[in-house]
Amino acid sequence: MEDILSFGLDRFGFMLAAVAYLFFFGLLLTTNVSNLPKYLLLAFSVTSFCWAGYYSWSAALPFTTLSSHLIENSKNAMLLLFLLAALSPADRTVSRFFSQPHVYGLLLAICCWTAISSAEVLSASNIFTGNLAVCILQLALLEALYRRSGELKWQYKPLVLALTITTLYDFALLAESALFGRIDDQIWFARGFVYCAMLPLMIIAVRRIKAWGINVYISRDIVLQSSLVLGAGIYLCLLAITGFYIRYFGGSWSNLIQATFLILGVAALIFLMVSGTLRRKLKVFIEKHFFANKFDYREKWLLLTRTLQKIDITQPDDHYKSLLYAWLNSIGYSRGAIVRFKANNISTLALQQRPPLNPDELQLINAYQQHFANRSWLVDLTDQTDPFVKSIVSEKMLDIQLIIPINTKGKLWGLCLMNAPKVNRLALNWELRDFLTLVSEQISSQLLLMQASQTLSENAQFIAFSRMSAFVVHDLKNVKAQIDLILKNADKHRNNPEFIDDSFSTLAAMQQRLHNMLSQLTNKRSDQQTDSNVQVGQLVRDVIDNRCAVRKPVPTLNIEQECSIFIDKDRFSSVLFHLIDNAQHATDVDGNITVTVAKQGDQLKLTIADTGCGMTEAFIQNRLFKAFDSTKGNAGMGIGAHDALHFVEQQGGQLNVSSVPGQGSTFTLLIPLKSSLSSAEQQETVIQGT
């Protein structure tokens, strides 16, 4: 058993190390950069290959023969030179580097040490101790390299880690040997495996360190095949070792058990090697973890976001085309279409540099809808391994490569169809699939936003129409109140010439009011300014006598101080009528309503106080000024208080309300007498009442 272990494990480890360093050497040769770190890395990989190859072929232990002294010291010298070069400026030439005193002094010292240690004038312990000093020097240079890397520690960390582990391993091996005067076989057996295991970190390091410019490129297919071969080799080694122990401990049935185990193990290996699923999963794993991404996701995402922000969702004829352009531009494609499923129909929403869908393409879309209605699955029509492509696509005239589903609310809303010239086409691998899925989700959200915007726009138009109708009805109620007042007094005063004159004056005012209302509804705005100088006390008296005398109790007017104000007379009188009418509805017939006109500083103070049912504070805060919320049932529109508040605020004033349930309410209007809002400066607003 010792013979098998001594022959198998140590030499196999060095064989793996030799293959690994040879592979590393080949990778470095593929780079087109020419600088000092690359040359010394090449030299280090060559000496390491020779070192590993020597021990895989020879049974000699280190520092026991002349050849072992030469190979060990050569490897150490190359490592020291490489570390010195890494600590030097990256643009230093080879001649300038080797002309430095400490460099050729180091080479001279190693040559002298090689001659002394191989001359058999020193004991084994002294030789091992001398090489310990070389390991200490290597560790010191590694520490200096890591410390001086500063903000670039992330780049140098794999390199320092790999070389530190191998150097510390050699240090432990030499320290043990210096203590006992001999090489420990068990530690020696693992040396090749340790060096081989650390090499991937070296490859990562030379890719990371930008200052060296060594951009090692490894094909995905090469890595996949190499990984499969390496995995198969390790698997076979484990099979061999396990089979050996089965035979060693198996007794009389050992040969049968060993043969059965090996045959089943090899069969399992063949099955795994030919498994397409395993190969795909391994390839995806390697691409995700060992290769740079195809896309700069930050740049692509910013480009997509900026493109979507430019889309005007209020223009329904343009935004689908803009979405398609953003979608195609995200992966550099030029042709495409967006289609939507409606019931059993397919509607084309946008086309980009392609003709309308032909019958073959419509048939393909129908087939996709049947197969993937409940699955969000991207399809590449150039992938002949896809079962859907095999079953559907055959001798069809298709200007489509990629089919991307658009899902909203868990359902298939539509499809985005993409194509590009063959030279620009991208294979639908895991990365492109994930990227397009993210883009699809973002654009699907944009589509939902556009649909919601259209719905809100339509609803807003209906609401505006309903709102306008409510104000029309509200104004018509004012006209009706004046007609009711004329009819109520007609029987008593029909023969009174003054009543007839007042009636005609009222009819003329109503005609003018209706004319203004129709003009405003037709033009959506008032064409003429109606502000004028108004005597507030007289206006309130006219409102009470001509429009509020129909309902009891009739308000009492108290003019403490007459005020003159420049304001829209008709609109102001309408607001006063609504507030007084609301007070009359809230007050019993035997109650009292008092309207007081006064002046407070440079403001008009108009108070409407009643002894009605009153209101709670919650009602005032939440419902009183809310449009279309009425406590009068079908008798009211619920816009009087809302319109009053809006009008007073337009004049730069305030409308304050105080109320006690069961005792009454008081509305106080404070309006500047000298308003800073001249008729030319007032903002045009949608007319809410006359």
Automatic annotation (TrEMBL):
Record gene name: prsK
Species of the source: Arsukibacterium indicum
Residues covered by the Histidine kinase domain: 471-675
Pfam family, one: HATPase_c
Protein name: PEP-CTERM system histidine kinase PrsK
Transmembrane segments: 12-30, 39-57, 103-122, 128-146, 158-175, 187-206, 227-250, 256-278
GO molecular function: protein histidine kinase activity
Protein origin, superkingdom: Bacteria
Recorded coiled-coil stretches: none
